[in-house]
Amino acid sequence: MFRERAKSAILFVLVITSAILTYMVWSYQPEFSQVDTSVESTPDIGGGETVAFKNVMRAYQLIWADGSDVQGTIEEDVVVGVREFLEDTEIQDINVYSNMNRLDPAVKEDGKEEFLIVDYPSEMPAKSLFQVLGFEYDSALPDYSFDRIIVDMASETVTFFMLNESLDKVAVANTDIESEYLLSIVEKYEDSFEDYTGIITNQQTSNNKTAIYGPSDPGEVNVENFLSTQHSVDVVNDILFMDDEISTTRNEDVYVYEGESNIATYSSDTYSYSYTNLDETLSSGRNPHQTIQQSFDFLNSHTALAKEHMLFDYEKESNESIYRFTMNGYVVFSDEMQNIISVKYGNNAVYEYERPQLHIDAHVPGDQTKELTTLENVRYQIALNEELDLQKVSKITIGYNMGFAESQTELNLLEFTPEWYVKYDGEWMHFDEGSLY
């Protein structure tokens, strides 16, 4: 009898203990707020938004020369911020000269020049710039392209000297902007400027207005990391092929999609998607400004751009507009995957369209940096390389090289590594230990 009562008591205690433990398990709430996930959310930077043309039509650096003191910046807030104060300017007159002697800024009372240099990555139509800035001009604008603007601030009112990439033409535009007013705007951003150096690579870049400028000694620059996903190829095909029936074939890493009047390819190795409209043909001799605008409207209608994109290049012979992504003010390149958006415009519609299918998601914080050599050392190493011709160098800047991190897992971690980039013989190339590739 005693044993039976003991068993009952023990069983009762076990039941009560089990009930208490069950309640504690189901009612437990872990303190997730104490867990550091080391991932920061970031806005959608792979597309899916409409942008204004003035967001993509912008320079990549701004230089401020006051006598022998040269400062510069790539910060977008400064480059675009100063530009915004020039909007709605009245152009008194503009003339194009095939004589670089017309590049003759004024000199201040102390005998020094003071001017801004606004650098673009390639030639852009003057009409596109005037549209962005809302410049007022009573006469027809000349069909002229430029890649650098010298903004003279030494005279009473500002004069623009717009240089073409070959440095054999200059367009001189006189404005109603007071130099003192513009200088006051620039001085507000003074803390964002750093030491810049001008280097000479040939006879055409031998003065302080045509020299090649870049950060003198950038030192350590942050390496950035982001998680990535892929855009759906099927979604892009549905938009571009519309009601066409699509047949799909595959050859190793390349998928081919064919419709009645369209064909597209996708490489899973480089994440590159390319579309061709078989009903269109390329035409030459078109107005660059109109073609750029039509291509931009096409991309905007397909939400293919983000506000971080920059109109990086325009190829007149193929009517091709090329856009690159920017991060922290630096242009993004890649040695291993597709990372440009390009549109070739035909007679009436888009002829070819190329885009990356890789989408950048969340930022992963880190403390990794890379030490970059000086600008002068870049020039020196190129000059030493017998396989290179220093005279073919027209621009030098810092950009990000995008690639998958060596330590990446199934998270597809992208790494953005700062590097020097050189425009050599008309092509942007990655500088590495004296070589370009």
What does this protein structure show overall?
With 437 residues, the protein is an alpha+beta fold. The protein has two domains: 53-216, no CATH class; 219-437, YycH protein, domain 2 (TATA-Binding Protein, 2-Layer Sandwich), CATH 3.30.310. 21% of the residues lie in helices and 39% in strands. It has a 15-stranded mixed sheet that branches. A nine-stranded antiparallel sheet has the order 3-7-6-5-4-1-2-8-9. Strands 10-22 form a two-stranded antiparallel sheet. The protein is globular, with a radius of gyration of 28 Å.
Number of helices: 8
Using the coordinates shown, work out and report the CATH topology of the largest domain: TATA-Binding Protein
What number of domains?
A: 2
The CATH architecture classification of the largest domain is 2-Layer Sandwich
CATH superfamily of the largest domain: YycH protein, domain 2
Topology record:
Elements: H1 2-27, H2 53-56, E1 61-66, E2 69-73, H3 76-84, E3 91-97, E4 114-125, H4 126-133, E5 145-152, E6 157-163, E7 170-178, H5 179-188, E8 194-199, E9 212-215, E10 219-222, E11 224-230, H6 233-241, E12 247-251, E13 254-258, E14 262-267, E15 272-277, H7 288-301, E16 309-315, E17 320-327, E18 330-333, E19 340-345, E20 350-356, E21 358-364, E22 369-372, H8 375-384, E23 393-404, E24 413-424, E25 427-432, E26 435-436
Parallel strand pairs: 18-23
Antiparallel strand pairs: 1-2, 1-4, 2-8, 3-7, 4-5, 5-6, 6-7, 8-9, 10-22, 11-21, 11-24, 12-13, 13-14, 14-15, 15-20, 16-17, 17-18, 17-19, 19-20, 23-24, 24-25, 25-26
